[in-house]
Design a protein that fits this description.
This protein is of the alpha+beta class and about 140 residues long. Helices cover about 25% and strands about 40% of the residues. It has a 7-stranded antiparallel beta sheet with strand order 1-7-6-5-4-3-2, covered by helices on one side. The longest helix is centred in the last third of the chain and has 23 residues. It holds the Pfam family AHSA1. InterPro entries: ASHA1/2-like_C, START-like_dom_sf.
Length: about 140
């Protein structure tokens, strides 16, 4: 199984990053404006990227200010059954975020394109947490 792994450092406390990853307000500014999200274990978050289907992520584990774990239950066929985790650790007001998108069945062009897009996700998350100016899917021009 293949895994995408990305890391970034955000100059805010972990509580701010965790809130951005678990709320409609945060993920609406970071990932997509069309969503239904609740910070509850077992809840199925819904994300719409105007591609003709909804991506559904089940909240598997939520550890306040340190971990978010989703299981993809509906999306592009290559995503279904994969997991996405966000692990947070804070040191002197700077939060390290480790993003892992794991259990890919094979290395494909879509896998590589998603790796790029997860990097853009972390860029948007950093901007949103540090300056309240995220870059959700609908606002991208590239």
């Amino acid at each position: 199984m293949k895994s995408i792994e990305q890391i970034n450092y955000i100059k805010v406390p972990a509580s701010i990053v965790y809130e951005a990853l678990t709320t409609e307000e945060g993920l609406g500014h970071v990932w997509t404006k069309k969503l239904v999200v609740k910070p509850e274990t077992g809840f199925i978050n819904e994300f719409d990227f105007d591609e003709g289907y909804t991506t559904k992520m089940k909240n598997i584990e939520l550890v306040k200010n340190s971990k978010v774990l989703w299981e993809c239950i509906e999306s592009d066929k290559e995503w279904i059954g994969t997991g996405i985790s966000f692990e947070l650790s804070e040191n002197e007001g700077v939060t390290k975020i480790m993003l892992k998108h794991f259990d890919w069945r094979e290395l494909t062009d879509f896998y590589r394109w998603c790796s790029y897009n997860w990097g853009m996700f972390l860029y948007s998350l950093k901007n949103y947490c540090e300056s309240k100016k995220g870059l959700p899917y609908q606002d991208r021009e590239f």
